[in-house]
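Subject: mismatched residue count in predicted assembly?

I count 432 residues in my input, but I want to confirm that the predicted structure covers every chain. Input:
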Amino acid sequence: MKDEGIKFESEMNRGFLQVLVLVLLEKSMYGYMMLRHLEKLGYMVEENTLYPLLRRLEKRGLIESEWDVGQDRPKKYYVISKEGKTVQEELLKIWKEQNEILNKLMEANKNV
Amino acid sequence: MYKKLEDYLKEIGHYLVVKEGRDEILSEIKSHILEKTAQEFGKVSEETLEKIIANYGNPKKVAGQYLEGEEIISPFFKKYLFLYTGILFVFHLGFTLLSFIFGWSIVIFPFFYIPRMENLWALCYLPMALVYDFGLVCLFFYLVTQAKIEIRLPWPKIKWRLPKAPEKKWIQPKIIFLVLMLAGFSIIVYAYLKYHTLFFMSLDFRNQAESLLNPEASRWYSLFLITIIACEIIVYGLRFFTQSEWIPLLKNAFYLVLVWIIMNNPIEDALIRLQSPDLEFVLYVVERAGIFIVVVFGIVAAIDFFQSLWRISRKHWRSR
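Triage response: the counts match. Full output below for your records.
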């Protein structure tokens, strides 16, 4: 049962993480920084999940990247693109609507 | 440079089959590992790197995460792969049989070249043909996937299904069938004793029936046939007393030995009656068809043999 729970959680996270990244990248950030930020918020993401996701979003033009080689170690910074911003707004709208539906259902269940 | 990190990245790179950006992905992973090591341990060394690398994950799995949408063959074609291979192989098999029976070389450029083959070579050619057909279908789907073409492929509806390896259902033997089999067998033995052959040119028994084969081949192949029929009757009779899986196993082992003897002792000019210039082609076809029948008989015996062996070993392991 626990394994099933983990499976569902990872399925839910798949979509949620995309929204989260698009919101997070309103400000320019590099991978490790994003992970630490999310960790502080109590959301754990594996690095080998985050980086491939960033690559996919970049390929679809939703985020943009730039290497910063001025520091002691080169870092790849990401930021949301104009197209990404549009998608982010749509996704947040959908997410809010879904949340409302879920809340209504839960309220209705309470009265059963 | 840090050897452990380089080795780790090299291994990821080995599995990372992407069209572009491979070096950039590796650079980013490298940057992340170095940053994380420095942040968590305060210094970067082989020992501290080893711990961070261990947490990052198996190189194959890490590379796999980047391969989404980079499939060699699209999963949509999975169900077509074996069906199309099967259909292609049926054609290939048919052409091989034609080539074998009629002694032709068949070329369908650029897909098939079936050379004129002798006896067992044709049999050895078939597994190779199956692998070739599978490769050809894979190549087609690979090209379609890579070209990102949207096509709707035909899906022929085939009514029959391949039977699953079944539990053997024993049919209770019946006396009447045994009696009929014995009667038939007596007629066959009588015919052999009287005419010294079971392979007749014609069934005109009012006159002396002529054998299709020369005397040596007549005796040899008739006894082969009689032995098989006798075996079948004995096995059928034994089923009144036991349904042991050992009986078909031994029977098929015996058949395989018989086939081996027959294939290894070809009789020169066996079809002597057909050896006239007019019948050269018929002679060739009959000879080939004869070999083909023996080979098919051998294959069926081999399949049956291994099925029995499989059932016996399964029963043996279950009982342990």
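Chain A is about 65% helix and 10% strand. Marking this ticket as 'not a bug'.
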